[in-house]
Amino acid sequence: MLNTMKRGLCTCLFVTLLLGLLAGCSGQQTPRIDEESPSAASSGSETASPDATNAAEHQPIDPKDVKVAFVAIAPPTEYGYNLGVYNGYQYVIEHFPDIETVWIDNVPDVGSESETVMERLVREGCNVIFAVSFGYMDNVAKLAEKYPEIYFLHCSQGPVYVDNMTRYDITTYDASFVAGYLAGKMTKTNQLGYVSAQPIPTVLSAANGFALGAKMANAEATVNLFFTNSWSDPSLEKEAAQSLVENGCDVLAQFADSPSVQQVAKDNNVYSVGFHVDMR
Q1: What would the pLDDT profile of 235-255 be if each residue is shown by its tens digit?
Q2: Which run of H or E residues covers position 83?
Q3: CA 237 to CA 264: how far, in whole Å?
Q4: Which residues pair with 222 in a beta bridge?
């Protein structure tokens, strides 16, 4: 159920963001919350403010001219997060057939390759770009500044640098809290195992949510956290899960792409909680 809920949230998030952009395209732009009021900003000078200049450059897109690109670090065949993102992309195709869409994957989130790929997408006419990996952040910010007429959406809990760049994320810690609470109730050894990917804000908040839920349910519960430092490494995820089981963990959870943790749980007859998509 938790897997299904997270998959639905991911799809809903893409659709909500896209609908928000389309609504913005058909009317006036929503002012930034940190903008000064007209009366406060008036100084008698006729010099245009930087915000006014940027607003002039960043014109709304006519909905019929929207072309959306999704840039991913791995193909959906790697399961987990990338499959969840791809499901959202497919939902857009199905429910918004008039919007032209582009999917491109296997784009590394380190180095300059993502910048090259997204700049090519801009040249090919894409005016809304979803950059769906945390590591794309700096390159997205650079391109957003270079192309103020393009909307860039970056998946992270990181900062936003320019007006035409926004961030989005799912509150994974909410569902993780529920999963942790259930794990705390179900454990017999009071040892819970958590296999996690990169130590970035989104991942850490999910792990913390799981731990807080477990502690609320069972004050004696301990969460044993293992970082793979990789978004997708099935062999290491399996090795980590097996190590956690051998050290007494009888409930496993994860923020990792492959179902390796679930397979280890099945092989050792312990409970487990998947992530991003249904991993049964």
Answers
A1: 999 999 999 999 999 999 999
A2: helix 80-95
A3: 9
A4: 191
Q: What pLDDT, on the 0 to 100 scale, is given for residue 277?
A: 67
SS3 231: coil
- Token couple for 276: 């991003």
Residue 117 tokens read as 């790929």
Burial label for 248, CB within 10 Å (0-12, 13-18, 19+), is middle
**Tally of CA atoms within 13 A in the half-sphere of 169 that contains its CB:** 19
Q: The tokens of 22 are what?
A: 């389309």
Cα distance between residue 55 and residue 164, in whole Å: 10
**Residue 195's beta-bridge partner residues?**
226, 254
Strands (E) in 96-207, as ranges, are 100-104, 128-131, 151-155, 165-168, 191-196
Radius of gyration of the chain (CA): 21
Report helix, strand and coil shares of the chain as percent, to nearest 5.
50, 15, 35
Q: Is the separation of the CB atoms in 106 and 137 below 8 Å?
A: no
Confidence (pLDDT) at 150 = 94
Q: Model confidence over 103-159: pLDDT tens digits?
A: 999 999 889 999 999 999 999 999 999 999 888 999 999 999 999 999 999 988 777
User: Hey, what are 126's tokens?
Assistant: 């894409």
Question: pLDDT below 50 — which residues of the chain?
Answer: 1-9, 14-15, 23-56
Closest to 231 in 3D by CA, of 133, 88, 158, 154:
133
Instruction: Please give the Cα distance from 87 to 93 (Å, whole number).
Output: 10
**Element of type H or E holding 218:** none
